[in-house]
UniProtKB/TrEMBL annotation, chain A:
It comes from the Bacteria. The chain crosses the membrane at residues 93-114, 120-141, 153-175, 181-201, 206-223, 229-247, 259-290, 302-321, 342-368, 374-394, 401-421, 433-453. Keywords: Membrane, Transmembrane, Transmembrane helix. It comes from Actinocorallia longicatena. This is Uncharacterized protein.
From TrEMBL, chain B:
It comes from the Bacteria. It comes from Actinocorallia longicatena. This is GT4 family glycosyltransferase PelF. SUPFAM superfamilies: UDP-Glycosyltransferase/glycogen phosphorylase (SSF53756). Residues 1-257 form the DUF3492 domain.
Length: 455, 472
């Protein structure tokens, strides 16, 4: 047997128990104590110095001579709370809402173009088709753990997504006989959407606001045509600089996970498709109008801008729901208790969001000085906004299929009814919104009330 | 012969001692076809090894998307799963040894386990099971605990979801979840299986789950793994640990001592020729992965003591790894005023250079199986000072064919800087003992720890198991 060069030390089990107190208090069995002793270098030879034949027997003696009193595990950080404080969060989400709504000023700037043949349709279709691309790229970027990988995905999204959207916009413009100016605006719109996604995903909200200001100020100040163009050109340049800066990854920082695999694309496909379907639901009356089904209600544009701005509060609602869900999981001692409390939270947060959205849409309609007949679009976009937020909640809890399926089915039904019976598109959209909101709300209260939805 | 080799987090997706061993095995037996079932994280990991032509690789991700299944609740599933929870919460009573494998098989036969475990039922059943238990003071399981525990079980059981092709033999390269494909093959086709352990899977899980999980989660998962390991030991036709020291845990956890055969790791002697000469300055060298389990802090403390007696001594540490731990070690060296004399050399192209660089080669780990670094240093003819962990004493014990030659290296208790320093000083000061120890170490390594011997042992084991002969 090999000689081990030990120093002559007196070993006392009581002292050892004291030294290993934390291990003994939280051990689940004797083997855990054995493993802990061996990790401290106490094997069979050392056990003999304590008077035991092997480390298992020593562990048994220590385990039996101690009381299990595990210290409370350190409370794990809530993954849905970033710890920057309520006021900071409120400001950030309000700013994001503003950034979602402000680009609407761009349409005011090009209102002269909108009178051209098919201009509105080309801009709407290219916008709706760009949504899935920007949504998909953002979802993919958010899925990366390393910030450098996130930026690289956003860069790839721009490098491949923008040329794709330019081809799509040119194709749509050509198909509908739109002017070159309209096609250029459609391309600029795609460029903005993809760049803004990069800025928003990487926390560049303030930079994006600064970039938007020249164009927005020039528009609302009613500056003459050439100055207006200069204003938006400065905005475009600013957005370009942001896009380059927020997606730049030095070669030395690139990792093997920075690319985009087909598996990753498949994973985010539901998010991308949801962007497409949501676009279809929101622009239903606008697109229908170009199909000869009658003009959309006058309040539609104002309601859509308000709804865009509400996506800031919507994000807050999503994070608040996930954060509260996590807190309740940690605090609840029974599944029944958890279900009851998380459903109450869901209803409470949705109520708050709907109230905020109602104020935004109502305010937009009043500011736009639109007629009293706006009650229809008001209710319709209120319910559509609510439905989309519920769908996003489902997605955030990994329930992509139902949210996408119900939204797609509603859009298909709306289109089917319109094609077959030719009713007023705004009534079809309103009915669809009522059904969609009701079905999704009932489903969500049921499904997201389950503990397993909050893994 | 078609052999299913099951690995977890090692070959062919990661480097390390176990991967080296797997590579030696599959390359050493080109006459057999190996189907490597590699339990991985997400399934997107790149290959770290280029498998030879007789090897196919099937990654089985434990943490990727859930495997498909029919889902929903079934009375049979509920019944079986409640029994499993009961076994886990009672801490594995004597009857668990028989009941656990049959419950596991019942769950395997049901199929679609991942989907079944994704439902709300298992969480409710676990909460209900916890309600009636006597738990330690202050322990109150939450829904989050139940969700975490069920999720860990679901991931652990994923290897049971794969289709089990027929093979002549399954060779599991560790216990725990790695034995699940071996158990499935045995249940489905009656395939014999060999279980090799380099470290002790269960001991490592005890240390791993000791931190980070709440007590109820830890208790449940460790009870599950304890019963799974016992099932692995009991179902294996032969257990082949990498050292005799491991047998203590194996027999304690249910392995039949009559079915245990130790097979030592081996190195290729051509890659580790005898070192010619010694470095100019008295040098202690160390090679390996920089990690807390290697306890470099004790080594640095020992080195500081060594310098009191041998002031010109230096310590050279070879290898990459945990940067945070490296910083901690550097700070310790600074605190002990030996900064300029301790150098982290990083990885080296040829690991032999790390051994040749030392007058004495050190191993300070608090846990090891049968360390390659030790037998490689011995093959180079270097004298060693090692901690008393795993199979270290077996490696450096006197050669049984020439016991009069004496020890092939010095062994000291782990976490004992004074003892380690005393041993190092003894060898640094005595060139004759050092040279003799290096000579007998090389002689023993060439006689007992070569890759050819390790491969030949497994060739015979495979042949015996496939033909129904079990000879430990």
């Amino acid at each position: 047997m090999t000689e081990v060069l030990v120093r002559p030390l007196t070993r006392d089990v009581g002292e050892l128990a004291e030294k290993m107190a934390d291990l003994l208090a939280s051990a689940v069995d004797v083997l855990e104590v054995t493993a802990g002793l061996e990790a401290e270098g106490i094997g069979d030879r050392a056990a003999r110095l304590y008077g035991y034949d092997d480390v298992f027997l020593l562990a048994e003696r220590l385990y039996e001579g101690s009381v299990r009193r595990p210290s409370r595990a350190k409370k794990a950080a809530n993954p849905w709370v970033n710890g920057t404080g309520v006021l900071h969060d409120a400001g950030r989400y309000a700013l994001r809402g503003l950034l979602f709504g402000l680009p609407g000023a761009g349409y005011l700037a090009v209102h002269g173009l909108l009178g051209q043949r098919s201009a509105g349709l080309v801009l709407t279709l290219s916008l709706v088709l760009c949504w899935p691309v920007s949504q998909g790229v953002a979802a993919l970027a958010y899925s990366r753990r390393e910030f450098e990988d996130t930026k690289r995905v956003l860069r790839l999204g721009l490098v491949y997504g923008l040329p794709f959207m330019i081809v799509v916009s040119v194709g749509i413009g050509f198909w509908h006989g739109a002017s070159a100016a309209v096609v250029v605006v459609a391309c600029a719109q795609s460029f903005y959407l993809l760049s803004a996604s990069a800025a928003l995903v990487t926390g560049g909200e303030l930079l994006l606001l600064l970039a938007l200001l020249p164009g927005v100020v020039a528009t609302f100040a009613g500056l003459p045509g050439q100055l207006l163009i200069v204003g938006w050109a400065v905005t475009g340049l600013g957005v370009l600089l942001i896009a380059v800066d927020r997606t730049r990854v030095p070669k030395a920082h690139r990792t093997a996970n920075g690319g985009i695999s087909w598996i990753a694309v498949w994973t985010i496909t539901p998010n991308a498709l949801f962007g497409l379907v949501a676009g279809g639901l929101l622009t239903f009356t606008i697109v229908s109008a170009y199909g000869g089904y009658g003009a959309p209600p006058e309040a539609t544009s104002a309601a859509m801008v308000a709804l865009s701005a509400s996506m800031g509060p919507a994000e807050w609602v999503l994070y608040a729901f996930r954060a509260r869900g996590h807190e309740l999981l940690v605090a609840s001692r029974s599944v029944r208790e958890f279900r009851f409390r998380v459903r109450l939270t869901l209803i409470d947060l949705m109520g708050r969001f709907m109230a905020a959205l109602a104020v935004l849409i109502g305010g937009a309609i009043v500011v736009a000085d639109l007629p009293d007949s706006s009650i229809g679009p008001f209710v319709c976009y209120l319910l559509l906004g609510g439905a989309l937020v519920i769908a996003l909640m489902l997605q955030s809890c990994g329930r992509n299929a139902v949210s996408l399926g119900v939204c797609a089915a509603t859009l298909a039904l709306e289109a089917g009814v319109l094609l077959v019976a030719r009713p007023d598109p705004s009534k079809v959209q309103l009915t669809g919104a009522v059904v969609l909101f009701t079905v999704l709300l009932v489903h969500t209260v049921t499904v997201l009330g389950r503990a397993t939805a909050h893994r | 012969m078609n052999i299913t080799l099951v690995t977890e987090g090692t070959y062919p997706h990661a480097y390390g001692g176990v991967s080296v061993w797997c590579d030696q095995l599959v390359r050493g037996m080109p006459e057999h076809d190996f189907h490597v079932v590699a339990l991985t994280g997400t399934g997107t990991e790149a290959l770290a090894w280029e498998p030879p032509g007789n090897v196919t690789v099937e990654p089985v991700p434990l943490w990727g998307p859930r495997p498909p299944g029919r889902g929903g609740a079934s009375r049979e599933f509920e019944g079986l799963f409640r029994v499993l929870l009961d076994l886990c919460l009672t801490g594995g009573t004597p009857s668990a040894g028989e009941l656990f494998p049959s419950v596991l098989r019942g769950l395997y036969d049901l199929g679609g386990l991942s989907e079944l475990l994704a439902g709300e039922g298992p969480v409710e059943w676990l909460m209900a099971a916890w309600e009636g238990r006597d738990l330690p003071e202050g322990v109150e399981p939450t829904v989050h605990d139940a969700l975490t525990a069920i999720s860990l079980l679901e991931h652990a059981l994923r290897p049971l979801a794969r289709h089990v092709p027929r093979a002549d033999l399954t060779h599991a390269v560790s216990n725990g979840v790695t034995v699940l494909p071996a158990l499935a093959a045995k249940w489905t086709h009656g395939t014999p299986f060999c279980l090799t352990e380099h470290g002790i899977y269960l001991r490592e899980r005890y240390l791993g789950y000791g931190k980070g999980y709440s007590w109820p989660v830890k208790a449940l998962i460790l009870a599950f793994l304890r019963m799974l390991c016992a099932a692995g030991y009991q179902a294996a036709d032969l257990v082949t640990p990498g050292n005799r020291y491991n047998q203590r845990w194996e027999t304690r956890c249910g392995a039949d001592p009559g079915l245990i055969q130790t097979v030592y790791n081996g190195v290729n002697p051509h890659e580790f020729p005898e070192a010619a000469g010694e470095p100019d300055r008295p040098t202690l060298s160390w090679a390996g992965r920089i990690d807390p389990i290697k306890d470099l802090e004790t080594l640095i403390k020992a080195f500081a003591i060594v310098r009191d007696d041998v002031p010109e001594a230096v310590l050279r540490l070879f290898g990459g790894g945990n940067a945070e731990y490296r910083e901690k070690c550097l700070k310790l060296a600074a605190d002990l005023d030996v900064t300029g004399h301790v150098t982290f050399e990083g990885r080296v192209e040829e690991i032999r250079d790390a051994y040749v660089a030392g007058t004495v080669v050190m191993l300070s780990s608090i846990s090891e199986g049968f360390p390659y670094t030790l037998i490689e240093a011995m093959t180079c003819g270097r004298a060693t000072v090692s901690t008393d962990v795993g199979g270290v004493t077996e490696a450096v014990a006197p050669n049984p064919n020439s016991p009069e030659d004496g020890e092939c290296g010095l062994v000291v208790p782990p976490r004992d800087p004074e003892a380690m320093a005393a041993a190092a000083v003894r060898l640094l000061r005595d060139p004759e003992e050092r040279a003799w120890m290096g000579t007998v170490a090389r002689r023993k390594a060439l006689e007992f720890f070569t890759v050819d011997q390790a491969v030949a042992s497994f060739r015979e084991i495979y042949s015996n198991l496939a033909s129904g002969v079990v000879k430990a």
